[in-house]
Design goal:
alpha+beta, about 250 residues, NADH Oxidase, 9 helices
Length: about 250
């Protein structure tokens, strides 16, 4: 696609389509076995590569797994995940979550966790069921395609900001094709095993994983819709008080 080309449709339809893709992006945790064509995966990545990136560094690298390659990786992770003695000491390659949680972030985390477990009928304190549900991450929630994203360890925190925009572009481009995703930090703990299984170079660090496929409409967990704060709760507008139309100066 020509990056300077005009909109493919009426401007109102374009912004509605973009807004729809962003708004309907959700973390899907139950997928159909329906295959995703390699051409569609490549098309999604082909769009995402135009994400904003400081001085055009383009810090992303994507490992796409499907079929037996995905199943083999899932089995290897599950074997380690099910062994608390071997997995207890494993650490993430970087601190994705805060070491000390505080409000309102802790409250939001708990709310989404218990909402999901409530839909699945998992009672508080049922550690075995929780472990089993968490373990579904490593099967990519039965999605036909798994994506593992890596970045050069030498790059700075700014490149992780770029990476976030790339990940969002992947997910939005997927929605535009009727697909769903689930970005997953849960893979981080097993970065060494994943690198070994996929032959990832030691200078590359795992950023996250992602499930890609068609949502299972029968999956009760897919009815989960998280609350989001309103604009007034997180945005502060600094305007000229004399500007009645509230236009930015």
């Amino acid at each position: 696609m020509n990056r300077l080309s005009p909109p493919p449709a009426d401007a109102k339809l374009v912004h509605q389509a973009v807004d729809w893709a962003i708004t309907t992006r959700r973390s899907i945790r139950a997928f159909l076995p329906t295959e995703v064509a390699q051409a569609d995966i490549e098309a999604i990545l082909d769009v995402a590569r135009f994400s904003a990136t400081g001085v055009n560094m383009q810090p992303w690298h994507v490992h796409v797994v499907a079929g037996e390659a995905k199943a083999r990786l899932s089995r290897a992770i599950a074997e380690l995940d099910d062994d608390p003695v071997r997995s207890a000491h494993l650490q993430d390659p970087y601190a994705y979550y805060p070491r000390q949680w505080k409000a309102p972030y802790l409250d939001r985390r708990r709310a989404v966790g218990w909402a999901l477990y409530g839909l699945l009928g998992i009672d508080k304190g049922d550690k075995q069921r929780m472990h089993e549900q968490h373990g579904r991450n490593y099967r990519f929630f039965d999605a036909p395609v798994g994506l593992l994203f890596t970045i050069d360890r030498s790059l700075g925190e700014g490149s992780l900001l770029d990476y976030g925009m790339f990940l969002q572009s992947v997910m939005v481009a997927a929605r535009g094709r009727g697909l769903h995703t689930c970005p997953q930090a849960s893979f981080l703990k097993y970065h060494a095993l994943i690198s070994q299984q996929l032959g990832i170079a030691p200078e590359q660090m795992l950023v996250c994983g992602m499930s890609l496929g068609y949502a299972d409409p029968a999956g009760v967990e897919n009815t989960l819709v998280t609350d989001r704060e309103t604009v007034s709760a997180f945005a502060t507008f600094h305007f000229d008080h004399n500007n009645k139309n509230k236009r930015c100066l």
